[in-house]
């Protein structure tokens, strides 16, 4: 039996106004707990099933950086050592600043000494008769200049005259070599970066993330969306720097690209995919689509018993666990029942026009909120049936898995589903 451990940390999930928390135990395990309901769940799938939470909004509300830090503390991350290191670094910076201040004071003292030497030379030249004392101009004469301007001009003239007198008879020429070697000052950043390529390749980051997924691919079900994979493997992912090198908004799209590469290892992104191979989730929902009326009132085990042969034929050549089929059965059933109840409610309130296909309308609204028109010059949908054409469309346009694997796609039949996608993507028929 797996030892769960004792709860030691909690992280608030910002989902609506609920009181859901991620609870971390001293054994490195985590679960979800609602303080208001006093209920806990081990997976997001259970939350969707039992409490009807919106999985995308719920996952978006999880602070994965905070959870990773809490997991790190549980697994021995030396936070105190990091604090000491930061204090030592701050102390070192203060010492450097003190040294720099002392150097600036020494430079100022040297400049003052140079000024004293200049005054000494001027006095000697005056005594020898090489310099004359500056005669004062009569005061009170106004030529249109203010007294401050006169004083400034006099100071400049005196400085220029003194300099000429001091330089008289002295060789202050600069050699050609010294003049040639004189260079413009170069900033520290330019000097450090000179000759170095400091650019970071997005492709390299993507490849490192793919390698991370390859590392744990034996623990990943290709049919699971990213939020489930991240939820189940967060304690493993946080041990690898590759996980933090990718922005959270890009991880899902990179994961979907990796899944496609695992399902079609010989395919490339340079051209459209021509295979009509659906994902396991798409195949399973398409299978359940034929039993929509029956499964509305059946639990999973009852469904398996009532349609034993059909279920066995579908699953016999597949390696997924029974929990996979049960979880997606519940999601599919929940989607079908929710739509049915909503349609009945709108009809009862007479808010649903009779000439409207409400199922198609709902799917179209869902697609409009998640997809945008695509370039389809090389699109090839040649196939024998509407379902295969839809799979061709999904694969060739690399549509997001979270969209094409949503059970809402299957509240309509194959023909209407294909029509919805073609209309939303603005693809001529």
Automatic annotation (TrEMBL):
Residues 94-116, 174-191 have a biased composition (Acidic residues). It comes from the Eukaryota. Residues 83-93, 117-139 have a biased composition (Basic and acidic residues). Residues 83-200 are annotated as: Disordered. This is FF domain-containing protein. The lineage of its organism: Eukaryota, Fungi, Dikarya, Ascomycota, Saccharomycotina.
């Amino acid at each position: 039996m797996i030892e769960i451990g004792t709860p030691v940390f909690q992280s608030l999930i910002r989902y609506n106004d609920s009181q859901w928390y991620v609870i971390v135990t001293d054994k490195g395990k985590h679960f979800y707990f609602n303080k208001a309901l006093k209920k806990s769940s081990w997976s997001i799938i259970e939350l969707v099933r039992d409490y009807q939470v919106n999985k995308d909004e719920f996952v978006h509300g999880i602070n994965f950086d905070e959870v990773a830090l809490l997991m790190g503390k549980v697994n021995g991350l030396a936070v105190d050592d990091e604090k000491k290191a930061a204090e030592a670094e701050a102390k070192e910076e203060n010492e450097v600043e003190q040294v720099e201040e002392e150097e600036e004071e020494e430079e100022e003292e040297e400049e003052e000494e140079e000024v004293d030497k200049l005054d000494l030379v001027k006095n000697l030249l005056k005594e020898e008769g090489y310099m004359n004392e500056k005669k004062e101009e009569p005061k009170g004469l106004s030529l249109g200049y203010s007294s401050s301007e006169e004083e400034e001009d006099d100071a400049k003239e005196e400085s220029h005259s003194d300099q000429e007198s001091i330089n008289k008879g002295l060789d202050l020429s600069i050699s050609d070599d010294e003049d040639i070697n004189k260079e413009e000052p170069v900033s520290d950043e330019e000097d450090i970066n000179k000759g170095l390529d400091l650019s970071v390749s997005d492709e390299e980051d993507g490849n490192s993330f793919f390698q991370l997924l390859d590392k744990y691919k034996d623990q990943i079900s290709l049919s699971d969306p990213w939020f489930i994979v991240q939820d189940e493997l967060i304690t493993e992912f946080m041990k690898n720097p590759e996980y933090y090198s990718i922005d959270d908004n890009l991880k899902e799209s990179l994961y979907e690209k990796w899944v496609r590469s695992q399902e079609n290892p010989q395919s490339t992104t340079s051209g459209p995919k021509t295979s009509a191979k659906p994902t396991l989730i798409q195949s399973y929902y398409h299978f359940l689509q034929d039993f929509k009326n029956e499964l509305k009132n059946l639990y999973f085990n009852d469904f398996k018993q009532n349609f034993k042969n059909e279920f066995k034929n579908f699953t016999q050549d597949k390696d997924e666990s029974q929990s996979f089929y049960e979880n997606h059965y519940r999601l599919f059933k929940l989607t079908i029942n929710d739509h049915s109840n909503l349609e009945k409610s709108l009809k009862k309130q007479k808010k649903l026009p009779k000439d409207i296909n409400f199922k198609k309308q709902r799917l179209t609204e869902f697609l409009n909120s998640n997809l945008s028109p695509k370039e389809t010059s090389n699109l090839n949908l040649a196939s024998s049936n509407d379902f295969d054409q839809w799979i061709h469309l999904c694969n060739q346009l690399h549509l997001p898995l979270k969209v094409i694997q949503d059970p809402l796609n299957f509240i309509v039949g194959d023909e209407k589903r294909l029509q919805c996608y073609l209309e939303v993507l603005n693809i001529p028929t």
